[in-house]
C-alpha cells in the first residue's frame, strides 16, 4: 500500500499515481486506486480515477466522496452540504481493497495537511491509520524545495515514512532553478529521488504512457529511472 501526496495542487499526483499503477499492471499485479475525496468535479463528470484507468488499464478504482466545488474537501463539503470524509473511512476502504489486490494506491487531494473536515483530520491521519508509506510528488521549479521540505518534515514528525520524492512534471527545456533542484529535491525531502515524469504524459495513449512511466520511475516501482544519471545530465546543463 502506498499513499501518494503532493506539495500542493496541480503538481502531477494523478499522473504519478497512474504511472505507478501502469507499471504494476504491466507486471501482472492486481492494482486498486483509491481517491478518498474528489473535488471540483460534477456528479456525472470524469474525475482523476477515470484518468488513472485510461492511462493504466485494468485497475480497480474507488472514490469515497465527491464535491462539485474546486476547494479543499472541508470547504467543498461545507459549501455543498455533503458529508465530510473521515480518516477511518479512508483506512477502512483501503484495507478492504488490500485484501483482494497486490497494490493499493491512495491518491490524496492537494497536499498532506489539506483538511477533510472541521475536526482537522487530513490525509496524514489516514496514512498513519494505515501504517502506509507516503510518496511525495513535487514540482520541478522555483519554490519547490521549501514545499517539499515542509511536507516531508511534517510527515516524519507524524510518524510517517517517506520513501522518496517524484517530480510530477519535468519539462523538455528546464530552467536553471529546475536543473539545480534535480540535486536539491532529495536533500529537501530527506529521501531519494524516485522519478521524474516528462511533462505532458497525461495526454498520451496507454502504450506511450507506459513507456514514459518506465523511463520516468525508478526500479523501486518497476521502472528504469536512474537518479544519478538524471542529476548528472541536469548538472551538465547549468
Describe the structure.
The longest helix is centred in the N-terminal third of the chain and has 14 residues, at 13-26. Helix 6 (144-157) packs parallel to helix 7 (176-189). With 238 residues, this protein is an alpha/beta fold. The protein is globular. Helix 7 links the parallel strand 6 and strand 7 (193-198). It has a seven-stranded parallel β-sheet, with helices on both faces. It contains nine helices and seven strands.
How would you sum up this structure in a few lines?
The chain has 238 residues and is an alpha/beta fold. It contains nine helices and seven strands, in the order βαβαβααβαβαβαβαα.
Main-sheet strand order equals 3-2-4-1-5-6-7
- Percent of sequence in beta strands: 15-25%
N-end to C-end Cα span: 38 Å
Low-confidence stretches: none
What is the chain-wise order of helices and strands? EHEHEHHEHEHEHEHH
General form: globular
- Report the average pLDDT across residues: 96
> How many H/I helices?
9
Helix content: 40-55%
Structural class: alpha/beta
* Main sheet makeup: 7 strands, parallel
* Oligomeric grouping of the chains: single chain
β-strand number:
7
What's the alpha carbon Rg, rounded to whole Å? Answer: 17 Å
Amino acid at each position: 500500500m502506498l499513499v501518494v501526496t503532493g506539495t500542493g495542487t496541480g503538481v502531477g499526483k494523478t499522473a504519478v499515481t497512474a504511472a505507478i499503477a501502469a507499471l504494476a499492471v504491466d507486471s501482472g499485479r492486481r492494482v486498486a486506486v483509491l481517491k478518498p475525496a474528489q473535488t471540483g468535479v460534477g456528479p456525472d463528470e470524469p474525475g482523476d480515477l477515470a484518468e488513472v484507468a485510461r492511462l493504466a488499464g485494468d485497475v480497480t478504482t474507488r472514490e469515497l466522496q465527491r464535491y462539485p466545488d474546486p476547494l479543499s474537501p472541508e470547504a467543498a463539503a461545507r459549501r455543498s452540504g455533503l458529508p465530510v470524509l473521515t480518516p477511518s473511512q479512508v483506512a477502512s476502504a483501503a484495507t478492504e481493497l488490500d485484501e483482494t489486490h497486490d497494490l493499493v494506491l491512495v491518491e490524496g487531494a492537494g497536499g498532506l495537511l489539506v483538511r477533510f473536515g472541521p475536526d482537522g483530520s487530513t490525509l496524514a491521519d489516514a496514512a498513519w491509520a494505515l501504517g502506509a508509506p507516503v510518496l511525495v510528488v513535487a514540482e520541478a521549479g522555483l519554490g519547490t524545495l521549501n514545499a517539499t521540505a515542509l511536507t516531508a518534515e511534517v510527515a516524519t514528525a507524524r510518524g510517517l515514512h517517506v520513501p522518496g520524492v517524484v517530480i510530477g512534471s519535468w519539462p523538455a527545456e528546464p530552467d536553471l532553478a529546475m536543473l539545480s533542484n534535480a540535486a536539491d529535491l532529495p536533500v529537501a525531502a530527506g529521501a531519494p529521488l524516485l522519478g521524474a515524469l516528462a511533462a505532458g504524459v497525461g495526454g498520451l495513449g496507454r502504450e506511450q504512457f507506459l513507456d514514459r512511466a518506465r523511463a520516468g520511475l525508478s526500479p523501486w516501482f518497476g521502472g528504469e529511472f536512474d537518479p544519478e544519471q538524471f542529476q548528472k545530465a541536469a548538472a551538465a546543463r547549468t
